[in-house]
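re: that chain from earlier
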Amino acid sequence: MKNLKVFFSILVAFFTMVIVIVSCSKNNNSPEVILKVFPTVGSTMTEFNIDMSESNDLEDHVSKLSIRVDWESDGVWDLDWTTEKIHSQIYGTEGDHNIQVEIKDTDGNVTPTSESLKITNSNHLVPANSPFSYNVGINYETWTAGRNNRDIGKDLDTVTKYFKLIKTYHTAAVGTSQVIIDPTMLEVINYMLAHEEAKLELALGTNNNVLANGGYGSPWTPGLMTSKSYTDEWVQMLINSFTSKANVEKYVKLIMLGNEIDANGPLTSDSKFTDYYTKWIPQAFDSLKASLHDAGLKDIPVSTIIANYPLSDPTSKKVQYTSVKYIKDNWSPDWNSGEPLVLFNQYTPDWGKSTDFGPVITYFEGVESELGGSPNVYVGETGYSAEYGEGNEAKVINQVFTWLDSQYKKNKLTVPLFVFMAFDHPAKPPGQKKMGVFNNDSITNVPKGIKNGIKLPAWISKKKN
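^ sequence. v structure.
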C-alpha cells in the first residue's frame, strides 16, 4: 500500500509539471501595430495626427493595448504609455521628421514602428512680384451650371466679403460670329464698376476655342485668337465693356488663354495635335500680346493654365512643356516686373477623394523645382468636393489655408492661389458638383454664407503691403 501511495504521488507530480509546462509554453503574440499619420506633408502650423486605433492583438482588445510616442525620434518618449490611440502634434521647424511609436499588450509584448512626414512652408513658391494686390482669390463660374435662378449680384455680395480677387472662365459670348462680351461676364464687370470702393480685381479667363476650334466629332481648326484681327476686336470689346482703358487696367490684372490647355484641344493621335502646341497656342499668345500693346494696355500680362505638368521627362508632354517654355521665353518685360508666371491646377489623390492635401503641396513644389524657379508657379485651382463628405471638404480647404497661413506669417505674402470654387454647381460632372466654399439655398440658389467647418482667414481680403 505504501508503494502505491508513492506511485500516485509521483503520478500527480508528473501531471502537474506537464500542466505547468503547457501553460508556460502558451503562444502569446505581440500586438500588430497599424499607424496612420495625417496629413503626410504640412507646414509649421499644421496639426499632424497619428491614429493607432486599428492596431490589434490576438489576446487583448485594442482598448487594452498601450502606446508611447517619440515625436522627434530622438530617443526621448514624449508621450508615455497610454491607452489613448489618437494624438496630435505641431512641428515648429521645417524638414523631414520621423515618428517612433511602440505598442504594448497586457503581457508586456512590445511592437515598434515608425513613420516619416515632411514639414514645409513652401516659402520658395512665394514670388517676388505678382500682378495681384491680394494673395488669394476664388474661382467664380458665371454660367449657371445647374444653379438656376442664381443672381450674380447676390453671389458677388457674398463672395466679395471675403475674396477681392475673382477668377472667371468666359469672356466673349459663344454661339455668335460677333465679338461681343458674354452676358454673364458683363454682369461681373458691371458689378465691379458699381462697387469701386470694394477694390476688386479680376483674373480674366477665356474660352478654350481661343486656342483651338473643334472636337465632339468636328475637325480641329486654329483657335479664334490665332488671328490678330480677332484679338484686336476682342481687346476693343473688353475696353467697351469696362467703359474705358483706364478701367480695364484698374480691374484686369491677368488674362489667361483657355483653361487646362493640356486637357483640352486635339488628342495626341489627332493629325492637328502638333499644330496645336507648335503653332496655335504660340500664335494666340503673340496675337493677344500685340493687340493689348497696340491698344495701350501693354502692362496686362497674358498666361495660361496647365492641368497636369509632368514631373518626370517633361519634354514628353508636348503641350505642357512647349507652352510653358514659350510663355517664359516670350514674356513681356512690361508684365509683372518681367517675371513670367503660369497657373497650375491640382487636387488631392484618388481622383480628388483623398483628404490628404500633402501630395498637392509636394506637387507644386515639384513643378517649381522642375521649372527651375521660372516661370513662377501660381495655383489656378485646388479644392475638394462635398460629394465625398462635407466634413472632408472642410478638412481639405482648412489644410490649404493652414499651408498659406505659414507663408503669410513670414512676410504677409503667399503663393498666389485661387480656391475652387465659389458655389456648388449641380450640372458639373461627378466629382465637381459640390466644390463650393459658400452655401446657397437648394431651391432659390440665394447665397447663405460659408459652408460649415470651413475657416477663411481674415487676411485674404487685405491688400498686400
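The chain has a mean pLDDT of 94.
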